[in-house]
Amino acid sequence: MAEAFIVAATRTAGGRRNGRLAGWHPADLAAQVLDALVARTGADPALVEDVILGCVGQAGEQSTNIARNAVLASRLPESVPGTSIDRQCGSSQQALHFAAQAVMSGSMDVVIAAGVESMTRVPMGTPGILAAKAGLGTYMSPAMQQRYPGIQFSQFTGAEQIAKNYNLSKEQLDAFALLSHQRAIAATQGGHFKDEILPVAVRMADGTEPGEQHLADEGIRYEATLASIAAVKLIAEGGRCTAASASQICDGASGVMVVNERGLKALGVKPLARIHHMSVLGHDPVIMLEAPIPATQRALKKAGMSISDIDLFEVNEAFAPIPLAWLQATGADPARLNVHGGAIALGHPLGASGTKLMTTLVHALGTHGKRYGLQTMCEGGGMANVTIIERL
């Protein structure tokens, strides 16, 4: 079987809600990434055989197959198709898996996996909210309600339950949140994001364009202190999580180009990394966010590796209890986790986060001269993708 290689990876810097990317139509923002991937490889755009794009809020401006709309907004020819993926927060990580599977099978040679989310223009939960307002029912079918009687699936409840189950105090969550900002600040000031961030024009929510380029993640709190983080109100009375120890609402787009050996030859480029392993696992949908732990354990077993074989980890910081519980359960070295910060500081643009984290992981392996990287993230419904890559 052929192998899958990443030959280009890029992302926009994250934009706060109503911030520096709020004026971008999400299809146009995703198109910027598609064009950049082609430009970075020098590829003939017609060689791209598919665009697989993750997006969670597929309503309004992100409806009607936003992947194809992004292609039509880009410089790619009309011959390039597109399909939109929703595996919740892991949507574009799953897009990467589908792209890798396509080139490994030999049915395609060059595929772009990408993701986009404008959480300003299509707020979180919009599809369900619109359906409810129109009297179109809920995603909770009668059979689901019978299987889970009286259960309201909630990521907030899940995060609190994980904090309780792993005996994680509010003080530990706050300290981890501060570390996320500190690492993101160090990476930004050290120029570690320079090669991965795609400059795009600033477009504000009111339509103004100040003539600047958006070059740095807008959510980083340079002034953050443990005291300021600790002072943020709890999400739930008697809980441990706050907005400060949770991922930031974010606008952004990201993507990677994936090829096989024939694709490498056609493009005439050297690979950045090889896909070493990819898998996905379903787990408890009530706790919901714990799936990265068993998913990582199973992935390492399937890959014939141990946790110590992995040089760098990207575990999405949906809520601070997730990576902290993951560290506790896997025994991973905390110094190897989210070394350039995570979603608490950099933002979590839902459907774009999968290839966003992969972009950061690929570049971080190069920056630090490391070999193996592992990415995983919790996903709505109690799932988790795991991807292991080898830097080349």
What does this structure look like?
This protein is globular. Strand 11 and strand 12 (383-391) form a beta hairpin. By secondary structure, the protein is an alpha+beta fold. The mean pLDDT is 97. Helix 1 (26-41) packs across helix 2, helix 3 packs across helix 13 and helix 10 crosses helix 11 (321-330). It has helices at 26-41, 66-73, 91-105, 126-133, 142-147, 155-165, 170-189, 226-230, 261-267, 292-303, 321-330, 343-346, 353-368; strands spanning 5-11, 15-16, 50-54, 82-85, 110-118, 200-201, 213-214, 250-259, 273-282, 312-315, 372-379, 383-391. The strands form 2 sheets. Strands 1, 2, 3, 4, 5, 8, 9, 10, 11 and 12 form a 10-stranded mixed β-sheet that branches. A two-stranded antiparallel ribbon has the order 6-7.
Q: Rough shape?
A: globular
H/E topology pattern: EEHEHEHEHHHHEEHEHEHEHHHEE
Number of strands: 12
Secondary structure tally, helices = 13
| Span between termini | 19 Å
The average pLDDT score comes to: 97
Strand content: 15-25%
Q: Low-confidence parts lasting 5 or more residues at pLDDT below 50?
A: none
Helix content: 25-40%
List the quaternary state of the chains.
single chain
C-alpha Rg, in Å?
20 Å
User: What's the story with the biggest beta sheet?
Assistant: 10 strands, mixed
Structural class from helices and strands? Answer: alpha+beta
